[in-house]
Amino acid sequence: MKYHESTIVVRYAETDQMGIVYHANYLVWMEIGRTDFLESIGLRYFDMEQEGYISPVLDVHISYKQAMKYGQKAVVKTWIKSYDGFRIVYGYEIRQEGGSEIHISGETEHIAVRKADFKPVSTRRAFPAWHEAYLEAMKS
């Protein structure tokens, strides 16, 4: 299985008055991890959107184990947790750079839809290159 790691510098604007990362910002970091992961396997959401499709989030799960703080560097590890030709679930783990303890774990579930009417489409049929890249990333 292919994994990709993205490093994020915890910015002051992402924290609360106590210097702790505001919980919703982890979703932004997961999105950064996901788009970086896709680029690492040769795919870009931009290309999908140029063809008239988008990939909305259907479901999100996050487990907050330990807060990240201002001044730290976070490493977002991203991979494909499951894919069935239609739905794709990405897995995430966020750790402090250089650390082994997981601070945040989570997953997001997505499908591809036509931008014009939000009608779901089969990734396998509409985006065969994406389908093959997903399968390859899951086995490598």
From TrEMBL:
This protein's UniProt keywords: Hydrolase
CDD domains per record: 4HBT
Signal peptide (from-to): none
One Pfam entry name: 4HBT_2
Domain of life according to the entry: Bacteria
InterPro entries: 4-hydroxybenzoyl-CoA_TE (IPR050563), HotDog_dom_sf (IPR029069), YbgC/YbaW (IPR006684)
NCBIfam families (UniProt xref): YbgC/FadM family acyl-CoA thioesterase
Family, as annotated: Belongs to the 4-hydroxybenzoyl-CoA thioesterase family.
UniProt-recorded name of the protein: Acyl-CoA thioester hydrolase
